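Hi U.,

Before I forget, here's the chain from the pilot set. I'm dumping it here mostly so it's searchable later in email.
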Amino acid sequence: MREEPRLIPCSFEYVYLARPDSIMNGISVYDARLRLGDRLADTIARHAPLGDIDVVMPIPDSSRPAAMQVARKLGIEYREGFYKNRYVGRTFIMPGQEQRAKSVKQKLNAMSSEFQGKNVLIVDDSIVRGTTSQEIVDMARAAGANSVTFTSAAPPVRYPHVYGINMPSRAELIASGRKIPEIATALGADHLIYQEVADMKSAILEGSPITELEMSCFTGEYVTGTVTPEYLEWVERNQLS
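Structure:
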């Protein structure tokens, strides 16, 4: 055991995995997600043609607090355009690309009355493999959206997560080795905007005595100091999902 152990919580818990009513390490998950929305709104304002956006929509449920804050801060109407089937589990951890794609269509339904002829800004909590995001963009267009701006309350997931979350392979991560415009093209979105790493960190830790977060899937910096390129290659060879 280290003589001076440090508490370094996993950022992805606050972004996506934890229940919104949780208080983890003295940090309200719900409040952290609201702050993620506040900071994302600032980034959107710098990069998106706001005058052309008609509505802000969340992907239920974990992105709802961030989407509400984006709409509030940018002064754009907030609408719920996706209906969620609560009997389908989390898609990004499901085994196999085909199963994930099938499950997205079973999990969400786009209500055409909310999309028809509109320029839609969609807020999701994160983009991992991109399967869900691609299907969501396709559904929005099929429902009649005029344009789709896709935004993520988390930064690009570019590196494997080896501390317990099933993201073992760089090849499976849509942001690995791609620039943001290339990711937008792969998703089929008109515009794509991510949260900045520094903004995510400050949003989660604001008002907390905790000073560090485990952010390896966003930065490639592994807090244990024992994750080598050779280990990552071994994980990719042996634990593909």
